[in-house]
Each structure stands twice: as C-alpha cells, then as structure tokens.
Amino acid sequence: MGHKFNKLCTVRYLLMLTSLTGILNLVYLMFLADIKGNLELDTSQRFSPVVVRRQIASVQVDSEPKVVAGSSLSYLELLNLELKDIVQRYMTSSSTISKHYEVNNLRDSKLPQQEHVYGSFVPRCSPTPFLLILVHSSPFNFMDRESIRLSWGREDNPINQGSWTHSGRSWKTVFLVGLSNSSRLNNLLKQEAQVYKDIVIGDFLDTYRNLSLKTLLGLQWSLQHCQATYILKTDEDCFVNILSFLQWLQDYHVTNGSKALYAGNIQEDMEVVRDKKHRYFVSTKDFSKHMYPPYASGGGYVFSGGLLQKLLAASQKVPLIPVEDACIGLYMQRIGVKPVHSTKILPFVFCDSMRHSLSERPICHFREPLVLHGIRDILHIQTHYNVLLMTFIPTICSYVDNQSFSKKFKLSC
C-alpha cells in the first residue's frame, strides 16, 4: 500500500484509567475516539488502515508529568513515556535508515558472492537465555526488524524492564536473513548486523524456496553459539506475546522439563504438492509419500534446545525439501518427537478469511494468544504495548468480551 499515515491510530474505545494510588480499575470506555499523531511511514505498508484504527489508544500523560513529593509515577505513566520514546525512535529510523532499503534503489546486476558472511558478525549469546527466538526476515524489511527490536524482541528495552514485566526468565531474539541480488543491500545488511549484533546472514539467496536453508542455518548457528533451553522459530510478520510465552514455557518446564517439546499449531493430513509451478512443489525423489506427517505451522513453533544436535543429525538423513515447516516435521519424526498442538499459537490463521485476517477482530482477542500472524512494522510496537495494558489491567477487556461483535469471532480453530 505504501502511502503515508498521518494518523497514529483511530480507536473503537478510548481507555481512561485512574490509578495513581495503585488501584488499577477501568473507569469507562468511550466509542470512536480519534487520537492524532505525526507518524509518517516511508516503508511499504501491508496493512489495511482498519487494523491501525483498531488499536487501543495509549494512555496520555502530560509532557512534564507532575510528581507528588514522596511518590513516583504510576506504571501507566511510565509505560506511556517509554512508548513515546520508542515511537520517536521508530519514526527516526523510518525517515532515515529505511530509505536506504527502498526496493527501487537497490536493484543492480551484481549477484552476491557466495561467502559465509554470517560468520563475520556472530550475535552475542552470553549469558545463554532461557528462550532463543529465531525470526525469519527478508533482506529488504529493515523496519520489521527495527519494530521488533523496539518492542517484544529485546529484553533490554525499558518497556520490558519494569517491575510489572518481571518474568524471571531471559530471552534473546536473532534474525535469520539470506542474501539479495543487490550488492548494495548486502552491504547494508552487513552494517546492520555489525551495529545490532542480532542478525545471522546466510550464504544463499533469500527466496521462498530457500526457507528450509534458512531454518537449517538457524539450527546450525544455535548449536554452535546459543544453546538455549527452548527455541522459538517465527517470522517477521508475527507478534510474540513474550511475557505470556515465557510464563507458558516456565510452567511447562517445571512440570515436563525432562520431556522433549515440539509445539505449535499442528497441521495434519497435509498433501504433498506435485505441481512443478507451485511454490510448495516437492518431487517424489525428495519425498515419495503423498501426505506429510503432522507438523507445526511455520509461523511459530517452539522446541527444546536439547534437540539441536539430533535435528542436525536428522538433516543429514532427510532430504531438504523447500517446505520449511514440513521439513522440520520430518526431522522431528526422524528423531521420534511428536508434535503437540497449542491453541494459543497462531490461533486465528485458519479460521479468519484471507480477506479480513486480523483487521476486524477486537484488539482484546490479542491478549491471550502467544503468537499472532499478520503483524508488521509499527503494529509490533502498538500491539506489544496494548497487550501489556490488557494483561496487567484485565478489566480493560471485560466489557469488550461481552459484546456481540466480539462473540462472532472464533478464538481458535
């Protein structure tokens, strides 16, 4: 869509909260309030404006909030101040760095040299985190990576450091990116990797048919550099409810930590595509059966870090088919690990139509899922902030959940 937005968001409900003494109660909801901002997006947008308008407005505070002697700012005020700072950083990146990633300026005839560039800028992984998040990202999509860094992706963000967010478990996000056919873009990626130290660049062209190579790259890098207790694979257009995800993993770890985990939205009875023109095409030479074994959808699946060595050993025995999530499913079958279905991972993907996706859902439906598909660019920041509010002030959604327009949507499929 690519046009500029001059409105940060128009919302269905304006949340007005009173809680300076620590009592977090919802006072009232106002329909159809307009919150105007000065955000200009120079990156290519892939959302309906409806999605942006549906976001819950941030709680507004004065630019110079008054602090009573002997007291401190409420956590809502602190959250809002951090949000303003984060959005400003996003806007700055959008108007400066992202311009260098514009597609029209990056096409040239030079093909990338096939070298192991990812070895030059290995992300730091010390101390080893409880959860490692591997995000598949496209070379061009700098603003997707930036918005994830500014929201749920980095533990050291101030918005993730308040007393209200202590999870007791650490996490680290690493982006997996292949090369483009633009030497200029490849140089930009190297610079980005050097600055942020959170990108692993593979020595292959970043195409859909090479997604399995990207997944294999993540397994190899993780085994060598970051053997976390658990690993989540997701995509740059997916939102991770990181605090709830960590709690969910912690609960599993306490009760079933000795058991290998492979969980997600499990696909069953999936037929192998034999049409050579289809992007999911797999030859009978690579996989002779007509149906795949059950596997977790690629938008988000989590597995035990202790499986890395076995998975890489399986990759030497199982052909590398170009359907990356089915490929991991074959590795898991090879090592004898059965997938576990979670209704909280990608819950709406197979019950919402492609036309509407998340655009018509009430934002309160984003409170419970652990991984959501269809969130990009600044919506990562907005969704992360809104989910924080809904999680720690649950009364926000008590009214919305009882409305007829909310009840018509299935919460999982």
Q: What would you note in describing this structure?
A:
- This protein has 413 residues and is α/β, with parallel strands linked by helices.
- Helices cover 28% and strands 18% of the residues.
- It has helices at 49-53, 75-95, 142-149, 183-196, 211-225, 242-256, 308-315, 324-334, 378-392, 404-407; strands at 9-18, 25-35, 131-136, 171-179, 199-205, 230-235, 238-240, 262-267, 295-304, 340-341, 371-373.
- The two termini are 29 Å apart.
- Residues 1-72 and 107-120 have low confidence and may be disordered.
- It is a single-pass type II membrane protein.
- Its EC number is 2.4.1.-.
N-end to C-end Cα span: 29 Å
Radius of gyration (CA) equals 22 Å
Mean pLDDT: 77
**Major beta sheet, strand line-up:** 5-4-3-6-9-8-10
Quickly count the helices: 10
Main beta-sheet annotation: 7 strands, mixed
- Count of distinct strands: 11
Structural class: alpha/beta
Which term fits the overall shape? globular
Residue share in helices?
A: 25-40%
Beta-strand residue fraction: 15-25%
Low-confidence stretches: 1-72, 107-120
Helix-strand string: EEHHEHEHEHEEHEEHHEEHH
Write a concise synopsis of the structure shown.
By secondary structure, the protein is α/β, with parallel strands linked by helices. It contains ten helices and eleven strands. A seven-stranded mixed β-sheet has the order 5-4-3-6-9-8-10, sandwiched between helices. Strands 1-2 form a two-stranded antiparallel sheet. A two-stranded antiparallel ribbon has the order 7-11.
